[in-house]
Amino acid sequence: MKVYPSLIEDQQIFNDLIKDIRKTPVVAIDTEFHCEKRYWPDLLLIQLAADGIGPVAVDPLAVKDLTPLAGLFADEKVVKVLHSARNDLVILFNDIPDFSVKNLFDSQIAAAFLGYGEQISLVNLVHSVSGVKSRKKYSMSDWSTRPLADGQLEYALDDVRHLVEVYDSLSADLKRKKRTHWFEGESESLLDPSTYAISLERLFGKARSAGKVKKSNFPLLWMLVNWREDVAREMNRPRFYVARDHLLCRLALLAPKKAETIRSLRGLPGGFVDKYGEAVVEQVNKCMEDPPKDVPRLVLPRHDWGYAARKDILRIFLKMKSKSLDLAPALLLPKEGFESILEDPPKSLDQFMGREDLTRWRKEALGSDLVDLLTGKLALSLKKGNSLRFIKVK
Q1: Under the phi-then-psi rule, with left for phi > 0, alpha for psi from -120 to 50, and beta for the rest, what region is 308?
Q2: What is 7-196's CATH number?
Q3: pTM of this prediction exceeds 0.85
Q4: Residue 1 gets which letter from DSSP?
Q5: Are 191 and 95 in contact (CB under 8 A)?
Q6: Where are the domains of the chain?
Q7: Which fold has domain 200-289?
Q8: Rounded to 5 degrees, what are φ and ψ at 7?
Q9: Model confidence pLDDT, tens digit, residues 330-389
Q10: Helix segments in 177-271, DSSP class H
């Protein structure tokens, strides 16, 4: 294999690197980026390591054409190993045209299925698997500065230096514990481009929950959410630079006809009225003249008399089930699934297995025990020594 420099700033060398990596079975990949003051994160470094290659870093500020990287990610023959892959992939999906992902291995997700906890850091995982302690000195570096300091570069390369070894260990453990298909089921969403698209409906639901907005105010709130998104995208600044969710709720309730009326709101960011006052009034007028027809429908909680009891018993069940499976409760049943089951508990195993709001592996793991619990066939019992257990009801 060709020997590559630790920092690649030449397009042809980068192209050759990707060609060589695609001849290997596994590649470790990581990125460095800045997102604190931007709408879209800025990609500032790409690190790669494979058998006999690297670790190397690619400078995307110098290497302008990253399409060869798209070819690598789409190559089904090469396993792409990333840690907490969603953070890296959202940038690559945005920055590289026609980007897609095949044969992905997220080491953080794999570790969660092996008892390492739901969100173990890469540093701690590498230490647990290989015994190597990575350096932390440059974790808060400014990756946009050039030239990069030698220490910065070595810190970045550490993120992929041992990742293939970690992959070998975790993939073997998943097979040994017969959890590979669970891991693959949890990883499916990472291959879907829609996972990385901005959901205005989700942002609307999040904004609504930040304040006491009545249903009659939903149309204006929806317009304000869309307005904020357009402004933030055009400015390339985070949404909160324009307006936080709670402010959008207050504006939706106030529905100001004049910009000066906005000044009556408490806790108003300095300069907001001068910057955006007229634009907000314009949204109010548009909403009054022609209310939007596409306001998302929000299913608000309607708690029945058994909701609180189900919530308490389900939490205990999840803690005990998670302990027996050596999984984090939030991995076994995330918040959305937890609330969905509370609102609409399954009445039979067939009904539960037919739900579309849970992945197949979760339905397999929870299965008949959860259904029996919610249909009164499984009871909570207190043993001697004050330990809890679930027992079948005859």
Answers
A1: alpha
A2: 3.30.420.10
A3: yes
A4: -
A5: no
A6: 7-196, 200-289, 307-392
A7: DNA polymerase; domain 1 (1.10.150)
A8: -125, 120
A9: 999 998 899 889 888 899 999 999 998 899 999 999 989 999 998 988 888 877 766 788
A10: 180-187, 200-208, 218-235, 239-242, 245-254
